[in-house]
Amino acid sequence: WNFGDGTTGKGDRMSHTYETAGTYQAILTVVDEDGLSSTDQLQVFAGNNPPEVSLTLSGNQSFYWPGTSMEYEVMARDEEDGDIDHANVAMTIDYLEMGYDLTEIAQGHQMASEITGAHPGNGMIQKSDCVSCHKVDGVSVGPSYMSIAEKYAGDDKAVGYLSEKIIKGGGGVWGEVAMAAHPTISEKDARTMAAYILTLSDKDDSVRLPGKGTYTFKVPTGKAPGGSFVLIASYTDRGAEGIGPMRVQDTKILRSPNIPAPAADTLVNATKFVITPEMNPALKEDMEIVIASNEALLTFRNLDLTGVRSVTITTSAPAGFMAGGNVDLLLDGVGDTPVGTGHIKTSSQMGKPEILTIPLDGTAGRRDVLLKFNSKNPAAPTCLVMMLTLNPERVL
User: Fold this and answer.
1) Contact 220, 123 (CB under 8 A)
2) DSSP string, 65-83
3) Euclidean distance between the first and final Cα of the chain, in Å?
């Protein structure tokens, strides 16, 4: 082991404490019996403790219902930065369609993070006398940062020009009031401050939210229903002891309360099956369902039932193919007493859904939800199972 601070060690497990703040390159070298070696290295930042970020949500922690609202709050703390205002955290919410790229949403949040006070350039501005003459948006002695960002949006030379203005000062662009010079600010820091100002005109698809508030769920226009909402909160500290800024985030994903039956965590005596438009012309695309045989068991694990008042099970039992029967709704274990039972009738109409709703009163927290099917004819399948829906209001 070479810890990069002049100390070394040997052994498959080592513990090392850096006594002086700084950036170090720790290198591990492994040599085999034949003298062949391989190395790996890790950059270590000592002296700047990472911030802590926590995103708390009211109500259900797994699902959302369109038209309902949730309260949220981002709590952030950092040993070196002290108290952190809600205005200095980045908070975004985005709608994730099924099959959409979660990485792209994270990149969108990264942009939003840079636009908030989490950007290191804003931290530098807050420590300078800039705040006495400029506001992010609004009238002050000098132009607002938003006005500057809009004026120089798309200008490739803007960072260099603005950083020079920060250092040397000047006037004539925004009126008669001259900007004071800041000769003690380094070119690197001035460019970071200018970069932050310019990000204020950036646009992305994520909805940016304050660090605390209320949000009402609505599937965006043009987006397919049944997706998830992705909430990301982050804070980037100002750095300390010569170490650059560190960014930490907390992510929550709330999914649709309409859970396809094939998404069950375990299937017993049940088979997944794909129905194509060729089989059913009413379909526009393939639909995966579950064929539940006698004594079939579908288990959906760790569902938050907070605020859920009933469960709807969408089935279908075409006569001649399925026998129909009963479905018991159980919580946590097969041996438990059923919360309720639904009766599945056969239908002469192929594909006709049977909607079964079972009340679920006084239940909250994360539970395993089990569906146990019993066929009228043990030799024939009970039914097709399409969907499990969690309802926020009791449906009879």
Assistant:
1) no
2) -TT-EEEEEEEEEETTTEE
3) 68
- The tokens 């009031």 sit on which residue? 177
What are the φ/ψ torsions at residue 105 (nearest 5 degrees)?
Answer: -65, -40
**Measured between alpha carbons, how far is 39 from 314 in angstroms, rounded to an integer?**
57
Q: Hey, which residues does 326 pair with through a beta bridge? A: 343, 374
Convert the pLDDT of each residue in 119-172 to its tens digit: 667 768 877 888 788 877 667 788 888 889 889 988 889 999 999 999 998 877
How many Å apart are CA 56 and CA 54, to the nearest integer?
A: 6
Q: Copy the structure tokens of residue 240.
A: 């300390």
For 12, the 3-state DSSP assignment is coil
Q: What is the largest CA-CA distance in the chain?
A: 91
Indicate the pLDDT class of residue 31, thresholds 50, 70 and 90. Answer: very high
Q: At residue 101, does pLDDT exceed 90?
A: no
Cα–Cα distance between 369 and 298 in angstroms, integer? 8
- CA 46, 48, 49, 51 torsion-angle sign: negative
In 79-137, at which residue ranges do the beta strands (DSSP E only) sit?
82-83, 90-96
How many angstroms separate the CA atoms of 396 and 385, rounded? 20
| Whether the model pTM is above 0.70 | no
For residue 168 the two structure tokens come to: 């040397």
